[in-house]
Design goal:
CATH class of the largest domain: Alpha Beta
Shape: globular
Cofactor: Mg(2+)
Helix content: 25-40%
CATH superfamily of the largest domain: HUPs
Radius of gyration: 25 Å
Number of helices: 14
Structural class: alpha/beta
Keywords: ATP-binding, Glutamine amidotransferase, GMP biosynthesis, Ligase, Magnesium, Nucleotide-binding, Purine biosynthesis
Distance between the termini: 22 Å
Pathway: Purine metabolism; GMP biosynthesis; GMP from XMP (L-Gln route): step 1/1
Strand order of the largest sheet: 2-1-3-4-10-9-8-6
Bound molecules: adenosine-5'-triphosphate, xanthosine-5'-monophosphate, glutamine, magnesium ion
EC number: 6.3.5.2
InterPro entries: Class_I_gatase-like (IPR029062), GATASE (IPR017926), GMP_synth_C (IPR001674), GMP_synth_GATase (IPR004739), GMP_synthase (IPR022955), GMPS_ATP_PPase_dom (IPR025777), NAD/GMP_synthase (IPR022310), Rossmann-like_a/b/a_fold (IPR014729)
Length: about 525
């Protein structure tokens, strides 16, 4: 795990050398990642690190710092606090909600529980019309979510904005470009929040707007060439999903035939997946792909395991064992060892898997992040580790990857193993796989595939009574899931027409042995997650 942390900080340092970077220090707000996204939307690169980041350990200098919101109270025992060296950086600072309360705590400790919580919309009234932070945002609706409040102005600060319930809705240092706001500009409910963040990043921090995918391609190809050197060879974990296909294409552009793509058939892939991927990547994109059938190995290790986190870790570890064996087998001609492993890890995989990005909770261990071996020999190259899914798709289009590949629904590495709830057996996988195939086929036929962000079938470990051909049946239940989302961090369920669901349900019960009932999952994320495990 610690090696991964190192790998990630090296790449942040590299990216930040080329692109002006705003540092977002995360205090655990559910919206923190949105701050990063919004900034990138207007081509300013931003990177999120935990609020506990030691400033002296940063290997790059940010153009500005944003302190995020968070679920804690600054005055509570054990509440997270920023390293005070952040002020020595001498760059502009913006505190959002908890971030503002933290600025106030440091400058006079005048923060306390409010009489009532303030959650929802408020109107922003700008007091200091000359403040560059609020240019173009006066009288707009802003989104509040707090229970604590400032009881007075922090020492050395002035009020620059108010709202009906928050007399200190906006504050600024009298002498330095340090600002605090009580509301959340990063959520879309704050109508002009993006303008405010733009004012901060561009007018106040003077960050340049050069974060574009075209620039990223050049930078990343050069970076890969520098890391790998002129002769070393790289193996890549390629699944046929968007992320690893884009990563593989980038690697191929960077080092040509020194790249060996490997797809692992882990026994829990979708119907005909291995053949399809081999065809699409090999013939379609000229990527040298080998499919390794390790299905028995995976299924044997999964025997008797029902805990979702255990399944994920077993699969993550087994993937690495297979890659290490392959690296041995492919040994380059000059006798050197294969040193590097390419993975298509994305930013949300990292945020959700490891709570090192601040005191937010680990939700689930993505197989390619938290499921890795501690003592693994191969060094990771993860060119997409800083990107969101929509950025990766844009990158894929720029690299000339066909539409159908770029817009494929994501499919998790642990695959059907986390869609068969309970113990994973060959028979259970076969049922889930067939139901999933029918469901997706119907979605494609109905012209809905591109409207849905992700859809799949899950097999539940419960039995239910049914009647078929006058016979009593007592078989399992399939749950269908389909969601709409932009970044997979939050999601809503897809509103199918009733007729569509009726058709899918009837096909599944009729065509898949072992299923007596079909249900449709109508839970958003949060509170649910996309996958059932
Ligand atoms: N069957 C597999 N064989 C080889 N590598 C895999 C396999 N499944 C997943 N991986 C590796 O794990 C990474 C993370 O998986 P993930 O599903 O998040 O990405 P993806 O499959 O590339 O894209 P998508 O999210 O669109 O499915 C992949 O990018 C790839 O490097
Ligand atoms: O490669 C992956 N390895 C994993 O371990 C994993 N877990 C979830 N996912 C995918 O991530 C997105 C968000 O899913 P959750 O809301 O279930 O966390 C959805 O797109 C999920 O399919 C994974 N992908
Ligand atoms: N959204 C936030 O940052 C909330 C900050 C703090 N926990 C409060 O309730 O005021
Ligand atoms: Mg995948």
């Amino acid at each position: 795990m610690s090696e991964n942390k190192a790998a990630s900080s090296t790449s942040v340092a590299e990216v930040s050398k080329v692109f002006d970077t705003i540092l977002v220090l995360d205090f655990g707000s559910q919206y923190s990642h949105l701050i990063t996204r919004r900034l990138r939307e207007f081509n300013v690169y931003a990177e999120m690190l935990p609020c506990t980041q030691k400033i002296s350990e940063l290997t790059w200098k940010p153009k500005g710092v944003i302190l995020s919101g968070g679920p804690y109270s600054v005055y509570a025992e054990g509440a997270p606090h920023v390293d005070h060296d952040v002020f020595k950086l001498d760059v502009p600072i913006l505190g959002i909600c908890y971030g503002m309360q933290e600025l106030a705590w440091i400058n006079g400790k005048n923060v306390a529980r409010g009489e009532k919580r303030e959650y929802g919309p408020a109107t922003l009234h700008v007091v200091d019309k000359s403040s560059p932070l609020f240019e173009g945002v006066d009288n707009s609706i802003v989104w509040m979510s707090h229970g604590d409040k400032l009881n007075g102005l922090p020492t050395g600060f002035k009020t620059i904005a108010t709202s009906n319930n928050s007399p200190y809705c906006g504050i600024a240092s009298e002498t330095k470009p340090i600002y605090g706001i009580q509301f959340h500009p990063e959520v879309t409910h704050s109508a002009k929040g993006k303008i405010l963040l733009k004012n901060f990043a561009i007018n106040i921090c003077k960050a340049s707007q050069n974060w574009t995918m075209e620039n990223f391609i050049d930078t990343e190809i050069n970076r890969i060439r520098t890391i790998v050197g002129p002769t070393a060879e790289v193996i890549g974990a390629v699944s046929g999903g968007v992320d690893s296909t884009v990563a593989a294409k980038l690697m191929k552009e960077a080092i040509g035939n020194r790249f060996h793509a490997i797809m692992v058939d882990n026994g829990v892939l979708r119907m005909n997946e291995a053949e399809n991927v081999k065809k699409n990547l090999g013939e379609g994109l000229g990527i040298n792909l080998t499919v390794i059938d390790a299905s028995e190995e995976f299924l044997t290790k999964l025997k008797g395991v029902t805990d979702p986190e255990k399944k994920r870790k077993i699969i993550g570890n087994t993937f690495i064992h297979v890659f290490e064996r392959e690296a041995e087998r492919i040994k380059p001609k000059d006798g050197d060892e294969i040193e590097f492993l390419l993975q298509g890890t994305l930013y949300p995989d990292v945020i959700e898997s490891i709570s090192f990005k601040g005191p937010s909770q680990t939700i689930k261990t993505h197989h390619n992040v938290g499921g890795l071996l501690d003592n693994m020999k191969l060094k990771l190259i993860e060119p997409l580790r800083e990107l969101f899914k929509d950025e990766v798709r844009h990158l894929g289009e720029l690299l000339g990857i066909p539409h159908d590949l770029v817009w494929r629904h994501p499919f998790p590495g642990p695959g059907i193993a986390i869609r068969v709830l309970g113990e994973v057996t060959k028979e259970q996988v076969a049922i889930a796989r067939k139901a999933d195939y029918i469901y997706i086929e119907e979605i494609v036929n109905a012209g809905l595939y591109d409207k849905i962000s992700q859809a799949f079938a899950c097999l539940l470990p419960v039995k239910s009574v049914g009647v078929m051909g006058d016979q009593r049946t007592y078989e399992q239940v399939i749950a269908l899931r389909a969601i709409e989302t932009t970044d997979f961090m939050t999601a809503d369920w897809f509103p199918f027409e009733h007729g569509f669901l009726k058709k899918v349900a009837s096909r599944i019960v009729n065509e898949v042995d072992g299923v007596a009932r079909v249900t449709y999952d109508i839970t958003s994320k949060p509170p649910a997650t996309v996958e059932w495990e």
